[in-house]
Amino acid sequence: MLKKFLAGLGIDGAKVNFVIDNEVVELGGVVSGNVYVSGGGVDQVIEEITIALEVSSRYKAGDHIRHVNQEIASGVIAKQLAVKANSPEFKIPIRFELPYNIPISTNNTKYQFRTNLDIPNAVDAKDIDTITIKPNQLVQCLLDAIGILGFRSKADSGSFNGKFQQFEFVPTRFLKGKLDELEVYFEAHEDRINVMLQIDKKVRGLFASAMDDLDLDERHVNFSLLKNQLVSREQTSEILASIIQQEYDKIPC
């Protein structure tokens, strides 16, 4: 009776452990591993085993710092499993393909897998495993091209607000002294990247404050970079420089 009571509280009950083969995976890549389940001190029935990929981040909204926790994907990997007391460990192979259009890991944006045993009338057993999602070749080419132009990433760049991830850069060479900052948003796909740039012009003089309040010192542009435009970071940087310059020239003086 005591063992059943303790198992119901999650003490000496069935245990779960997700062992990931690759803890660093690129966008669109495959996460593989095994979920290991072992019996506790009493017989138990596992209603289902679920795995969820979760992202957490913090971002600035006005003068406030806000936090976001969001489930990217989840699934049931097993149902109705009878686990005998002190039964030997068994494993369930896992293979999960990451989407392309999700945030990448940054200082502010983190990922984890949450593995859960749903056991009726008992505290569910859980396992938390961190994972790093890095840019794929196309996204890395885009980021490298921005760096080639001399744009330096700001400290809070890469924040995710639950809808989009924002990258903020300051110029150190190209358009230095002319731009306040460059904001970059992108949505990766297998064969292209959809990009949105916010170009903030550095405005001086009597009407600078008014232009800033009315967002007249900003320019937004949307475009797509195809796979063949993301082969060489030098080539991509030339494309970006041309687009940024053209849009900058359209901002009122």
- Into which percentage range does the β-strand content fall? over 45%
Please report the distance between the alpha carbons of the first and last residues. 80 Å
Shape: elongated
- Could you say what the CATH architecture of the largest domain is? Sandwich
Uncertain ranges: 1-11
Mean pLDDT: 88
Protein structure class:
alpha+beta
Rg computed from alpha carbons, rounded to a whole number of angstroms: 24 Å
Total DSSP helices: 4
Number of domains: 2
The percent of residues in helical segments reads 10-25%
Number of strands: 14
Q: Remind me, CATH topology of the largest domain?
A: Immunoglobulin-like
State the order of secondary-structure elements, H for helix, E for strand: HEEEEEEEEHEEEEEHEH
CATH class category label of the largest domain: Mainly Beta
How many strands, what sense, and barrel or not for the largest sheet?
6 strands, antiparallel
Characterization of the model:
It is elongated, with a radius of gyration of 24 Å. Strands 9, 10, 11, 12, 13 and 14 form a six-stranded antiparallel beta sheet that branches. A five-stranded mixed beta sheet has the order 2-8-7-4-5, with no helix packed on it. Helix content is 16%, strand content 49%. It folds into two domains: 2-134, Immunoglobulin-like, CATH 2.60.40; 137-248. It has helices at residues 2-8, 137-148, 208-213, 233-248, and strands at residues 15-20, 24-26, 30-38, 44-61, 64-83, 90-97, 110-118, 125-134, 151-153, 159-160, 165-171, 179-188, 192-201, 218-226. It is of the alpha+beta class and 253 residues long.
